[in-house]
Specification:
elongated; about 240 residues; five-stranded mixed sheet; homodimer; five-stranded parallel sheet; alpha/beta
């Protein structure tokens, strides 16, 4: 029997992979993943066998990995960012264990909450939540409840999947909910295309964030009550007296 | 003028560092950090200058980095896990900007929420919170409020700093608060010494977690309402129909 590794490759560039992720993929017989992520790493592994698929075929992708592993092959199922956060470790493990196959290992990676925060300054520095605005798998009323709880708990918030072609306006809806609890001048920011050639970073207020145009390659950040902007950086103090 | 890099080295072993973290430290003139973290990487950088300090001297450590940078040196301030999450990016940026020095860059790393979840299976797979139980910098009533909001929002929860010599019993207090909202059979787990030689992993229920002994090198995980245990793995479904 083979083995399946679910590997987080980080934001997308080679240098943001861990050595473990890089070596694990190198040691596998075949690399499986969403087309866009395969393109990010293809040049690092010349001569390897790649199997790519499109969006919304996540469970088919897991079944492909399982079949390959049962044929005795070692398989790397790649994910951008971490392998667990809104990624493939969970569906892959469910699919494999459901079929009695347990040789699945997760290789973690740097997730967008951390890499985006680093580009903005130090916004995710204290207790934080991540929330995805995609309602394909989570009902919108659950998302709404989580947004309210995050605001009431004074968490820093990282918002994944703030909008997409079919979900234009979701970020505005989320901001409206947050604005019922948080002030309009709450420091926020967002990062587009983290770790890729055309990364862009913007710092703004929560009121301004309502009107911003984002896409599925954007990660959005909302500060907690102590977060401030200085020299263009978004900083959440940890509580030290720095004087 | 020099430059300061705040670098997350991941859980502690070389292979869980990103290439960017490893190369950034290599390119710096001097490496500054908490004694325990310096020991984790010292052998990777033979001949380098190291400046180590003890716990609770975080702001002194930042000032040391700032002085070195103002003397024209490039400095790596290292953190375990990520450079931002309960780490040094925020106090370093505050200290530097307060003094008019802005050449501070953050190099993110794999945080314990992701590396611990990978060892337990796939518990951090959907919306999640991280909460530190250390009340050195955050008042306990804020921590308590955040625990309640996390439970009410049906978040997966990663608990950092569950206890220490001076905070024995804090995890039990936190579990008692969660148990006001969550059922006693809620799947949980914890990981000790992630990425080091003597890593240990345990899966249990929330009621059992109340009685567990943990320390400051332990990260604790509480599942959401969909999390289940199968073949010893802690899995939070993302909502896919895997049949």
């Amino acid at each position: 029997m083979g083995k399946i590794y679910v590997v987080g490759i980080g934001p997308g560039c080679e240098e943001m992979m861990t050595l473990h992720a890089k070596n694990t993929i190198e040691a596998c017989d075949v690399i499986v993943g969403y087309r866009t992520y395969i393109e990010l790493i293809r040049k690092l592994y010349p001569g390897k066998e790649f199997i790519e698929s499109g969006m919304r075929s996540e469970i088919d992708r897991c079944r492909t990995c399982l079949e390959l592993a049962k044929e005795g092959r070692t398989v790397a199922l790649i994910c951008s960012g971490d392998a667990g956060v809104y990624a493939m470790a969970s569906p892959m493990m469910e699919t494999a264990l459901d079929d009695g196959f347990s040789d699945v290992e997760t290789v973690p990676g740097v997730t967008a909450a951390q890499s985006g925060s680093a580009l903005l300054g130090a916004v995710i520095a204290n207790d934080y939540c991540t929330i995805s605005l995609s309602d394909l798998l989570t009902p919108w009323d659950v998302i709404e409840k989580r947004l309210r709880c995050a605001a009431e708990g004074d968490y820093c918030i990282a918002i994944y999947n703030p909008s997409s072609h079919n979900r234009a306006g979701y970020l505005k809806r989320a901001c409206s909910i947050l604005l019922e609890i948080l002030p309009g001048d709450r420091p926020c920011g967002y990062v587009r295309n983290i770790g890729r050639d055309d990364t862009s970073v913007k710092v703004c207020t929560l009121s301004e964030l309502c009107e911003e145009q984002t896409d599925m390659f954007t990660t959005v950040f909302v500060g907690n009550s102590a977060t401030y902007i200085k020299c263009g950086r978004l900083i959440t103090p940890r509580g030290y007296d720095i004087k």
